[in-house]
TrEMBL record, chain A:
Keyword Disulfide bond attached: no
Modified residues (4-aspartylphosphate): D52
Matching Pfam families: Response_reg
Record's protein name: Two-component system, chemotaxis family, response regulator CheY
A GO biological-process term: phosphorelay signal transduction system
Keyword Membrane: no
Keywords for the protein's UniProt record, in alphabetical order: Phosphoprotein
Domain Response regulatory: from-to ranges: 3-119
Organism: Sphingomonas gellani
UniProtKB/TrEMBL annotation, chain B:
UniProt GO MF annotations: S-adenosylmethionine-dependent methyltransferase activity
Entry's Gene Ontology BP terms: methylation
InterPro entries on file: Bact_Chemotaxis_MeTrfase, CheR_C, CheR_MeTrfase, SAM-dependent_MTases_sf
CDD domains named among the record's database cross-references: AdoMet_MTases
Keywords of the record: Methyltransferase, Transferase
Domain CheR-type methyltransferase, residue spans: 7-267
Record-given protein name: Chemotaxis protein methyltransferase CheR
PANTHER family membership: CHEMOTAXIS PROTEIN METHYLTRANSFERASE, CHEMOTAXIS PROTEIN METHYLTRANSFERASE 1
Length: 121, 286
């Protein structure tokens, strides 16, 4: 089974994403901020990270930069999943190494489609 | 509730009389039938029309339709009932095959012609336009002529406007392509670039009518359209699709569709898997 780390400070969003991802046959783990997510990736790199932007402790962009600069074997796909829907944010995320971008609110079809695009669904 | 009970309960929300009126209207205008498994959608699909007119029940809507004084109503009901399900780059591998097919045509010195039949709100032809516009940027190769048709004027208006909701623009479209070819609006819709929309000729067309786009095509996409037609309607459309295809042309159907057992005009393509080509006539066969 493929693995996905859902990183979002909203428990509700994590729950919704987990439910969708499990129906898509992913094994899901969760983190509430970028620091927790980075520790998780170092210990157990997932196939894909579903990443919120605005979070306490370490935000999504700082997490992404740290992840891409790390010596982590393999390269987990990163799909931003955020309410930051302006072109400037999207461009910044892609330039920082995000593979895809989901604009909230999202539904099952959107998430499945984006995971297909990165080759994981 | 069991699945069977749920289906029966949902189906019963549309009375047989209303169902007969609506199915006759849809079939007369589009050739499409409403399969019993889709009947549960009728109430939901028509709710916005009822709300706009201050009508509380489907009975009232059907009475108004039969009254004949609300002239736009019939068109609006047909638009609401036609299944417009589509997305960008639907079944993405199909587009790689179309690229290969078009390259073959161009190798003979011709500009390829593609027809997207039943294009709904335009995601399929605009995906083709993106594909070939990107190829033009890389190689200078021309963009094929892309003709897109649909029975619904409402769907075509949306296609021509190139306006898509945030949900629509995220289905099948990689974010890099969305950034390249679309502009977000503050309200959340995304607008396709006019350069892109200009590559597609959108035309109203009822596949079961005798008026078809002029000329013949190298590739015809008719995906997830024929499954809503009667056996007779399907046979007629297949025969006209055959007449609209060039001798070496290719027909593309939806992933769950086939020509086998439906028509003798086409056979599975030997060149591209999942595509269909004109059947070679068997000598002596009628």
């Amino acid at each position: 089974m493929k693995t996905c780390l859902v990183v979002d400070d909203s428990k509700v969003i994590r729950k919704v994403a987990r439910h969708i991802l499990e129906t898509l046959n992913f094994t899901v783990s969760e983190a509430a901020d970028g620091r927790e997510a980075l520790n998780h990736c170092m210990a157990s790199p997932p196939d894909v990270v579903l990443l919120d932007w605005n979070m306490p402790v370490m935000n999504g962009m700082d997490f992404l930069r740290a992840l891409r600069e790390s010596a982590l074997p393999g390269r987990p796909k990163v799909v931003f999943c955020t309410t930051e829907n302006g072109m400037a944010h999207i461009r910044a995320a892609i330039e920082a190494g995000a593979d895809e971008y989901v604009m909230k609110p999202f539904d099952r079809e959107t998430l499945e489609s984006k995971l297909q695009i990165v080759g994981l669904a | 509730m069991t699945a069977m009970t749920a289906t029966a309960a949902a189906t019963s929300s549309v009375s047989p009389k209303n169902m007969a009126v609506l199915t006759q209207l849809l079939e007369a205008r589009t050739g499409q039938q409403i399969a019993s498994y889709r009947s549960w959608r009728i109430d939901t699909a028509l709710k916005p029309l009822m709300r706009d007119r201050g009508l509380a029940t489907l009975d009232q809507l059907v009475s108004r339709l039969l009254g004949g004084h609300d002239l736009p109503l019939a068109d609006q009901i047909v638009d609401a009932l036609v299944n417009g399900e589509t997305s960008f780059f639907r079944e993405a591998t199909v587009f790689d095959s179309i690229l290969a097919a078009v390259t073959e045509v161009e190798a003979q010195g011709c500009r390829a012609r593609i027809w997207s039949a039943g294009c709904s709100t335009g995601q399929e032809p605009l995906s083709l336009a993106m594909l070939f516009a990107e190829r033009r940027e890389e190689t200078g190769a021309p963009i094929p002529e892309i003709v897109a048709t649909d029975v619904s004027e409402t769907a075509l208006s949306r296609a021509r406007a190139g306006r898509f909701s945030q949900f629509e623009v995220q289905r099948g479209l990689p974010i890099r392509r969305a950034m390249r070819w679309f502009e977000p609006e503050p309200q959340g819709d995304w607008i396709a670039s006019s350069d892109l929309v200009r590559q597609v000729v959108f035309r109203p067309l009822n596949l079961v009518s005798p008026h078809w786009p002029p000329g013949r095509f190298d590739v015809i996409l008719c995906r997830n359209v024929l499954l809503y037609l009667s056996a007779e309607g399907k046979a007629g459309v297949f025969s006209r699709l055959a007449a609209a295809l060039k001798p070496d042309g290719l027909l593309v159907l939806g992933a769950g569709e086939t020509v086998i057992g439906q028509t003798s005009a086409f056979e599975p393509s030997r060149r591209l898997r999942g595509f269909y080509e004109l059947a070679v006539p068997v000598p002596g066969a009628k």
